[in-house]
Amino acid sequence: MSLEVENDLIRVSNQLCDFSADGRFLAIAYQTNLIIKNSKTFDTIHSFIFADIIEVLEWSRNSEYILCANISKAVIQIYSIHYPEWKYKLIEGSAGLESVNWSPDSKYILTLSDFNIQASIWSLENQSVTHIQNVKSSFHKLHFSPNGSRLAIVVSIEGQDSIEIYKTDTWKLSRKLICGHLNSIDGICWSPNSELLCIWCSFGNEAKLITYSSVLDRDIGIFCPTQITDSSETEHSYQIQLNGIETVTWMPSGQLLAVTGFNEMITLLNYVTWKPLLQLYLDPVIKENYLNKVYEERVIQTKFSNTNTSLYNKHILEEKHERPVNIRISKKNDIDKLSVAKFSILEFSSCGHYLAIKHELYPTTLWIWNIIEDYLDYLLLENSIVAIKWNPRSAHLLIFCKCTYMFEWTPYSATCIPTPRNITALDARWHSQGNLVLLCGYNKAIIYEIKNKL
């Protein structure tokens, strides 16, 4: 697989650029300017002027509209691709603006006010607005089911947490889950088939994960980390037990859940039994395992040419075969001493066979777990990893470290690739077909075309 430059540098603000869901268009925000391009020819189709500096950009799911917002001024503007003269503007008002998102059917705008005082649902069709009060302050995003039919919101009234589930066609309250088995609600997530809702309490002996079925209208599974024994719950025995529940992520097929704790531990749960199937501890020492691969970044000084004596640093990834290998541990700043180090990356590949993992304790290391065969690839890099992006169509991963090169991983190899025009790569946006990728820098972006795609 190789990457090829497709276009010149594009000016953007704060990485505000993205392909539409159907892949036909590319939206770019630069200061107050919104530019819409054809993703095949890269010709400009529309150019709009926003009322202020654009801080948020989001496509509607049907790719017909695009949302721009300035959070600090609480101003939102909607633009139409096919009817560019049509515009919809709203101002949140005295409640302020925390976040803004599209509804799955592309007919409504949903906003969270400052301090999560309320969630507001704005209709593009009849200009009406519906409010949901008492949203729990620690939740800064809305949880739609993948099929878009339901919205789950955690509300807190006088210290008591519950979940309200709304039908998105009418925005009527469908279910209210009291969740009496949980001391508090610290996280929720929908299953890929939109039938199950995972709800968990994070800390201490009260840590617990319950799974609610919207089809059966009842809880169907409970997982308690403190109840895992050495051999009764899993096929293997583990010396380290999952400590609390930090995050929960579903495999794309919905067959497994990845549950992380606050002690660098990951447990994969079977969605039928709700018991651990596999566990992984992020050990800072890589021990002998003939299946595991370790790729380490190396810097080689090379001449520019045979006639030029100037040297430059060339970065490569080299496979290490000796064991053990010590993983570099971060040195926490004094200001962070009271905070808990967490998993900052936990993402499945589109096929679900691989899980990419990064923990704040090990900022320069990426674990790539083959959960089918239970072995690991390690990427040991020089700089902190700031983002990764899986190809939506294949087991192909790009890794970014806030420098002028990036890293590419497939199940067969790992390589280091210089970025064009010395762009400092911070993140990327994949085209839905997986054949184009938009590399994002601080204030510029560039499009790459993927050759020899897997």
Characterize the structure shown.
It is a single chain. The chain is mostly beta strands and about 450 residues long. It has no helices and 41 strands. It has a 6-stranded mixed sheet, with no helix packed on it. Strands 1, 2, 39, 40 and 41 form a 5-stranded antiparallel sheet that branches. A 4-stranded antiparallel sheet has the order 3-4-5-6, with no helix packed on it. A hairpin with a 5-residue loop joins strand 3 and strand 4. The protein is globular, with a radius of gyration of 23 Å.
Could you provide a short overview of the structure?
This protein is mainly beta. Strand 11 and strand 12 (108-112) form a beta hairpin.
Biggest sheet features: 6 strands, mixed
Strand order of the largest sheet: 29-28-34-33-32-31
Helix/strand-derived class?
Answer: mainly beta
- Shape assignment: globular
Which radius of gyration do the C-alpha atoms yield?
A: 23 Å
- Total strand count, please? 41
Element layout with pairings:
Blueprint: E1 2-5, E2 10-11, E3 17-19, E4 25-30, E5 33-38, E6 44-49, E7 56-59, E8 65-70, E9 75-80, E10 87-91, E11 99-102, E12 108-112, E13 118-123, E14 129-133, E15 143-144, E16 150-157, E17 160-167, E18 172-177, E19 187-190, E20 196-201, E21 208-213, E22 218-223, E23 248-250, E24 256-260, E25 265-270, E26 276-281, E27 285-286, E28 293-305, E29 308-320, E30 325-326, E31 343-348, E32 354-359, E33 365-370, E34 375-380, E35 387-390, E36 397-400, E37 405-410, E38 413-418, E39 427-430, E40 436-440, E41 444-451
Parallel strand pairs: 28-34
Antiparallel strand pairs: 1-41, 2-41, 3-4, 4-5, 5-6, 7-8, 8-9, 9-10, 11-12, 12-13, 13-14, 15-16, 16-17, 17-18, 19-20, 20-21, 21-22, 23-24, 24-25, 25-26, 27-30, 28-29, 31-32, 32-33, 33-34, 35-36, 36-37, 37-38, 39-40, 40-41
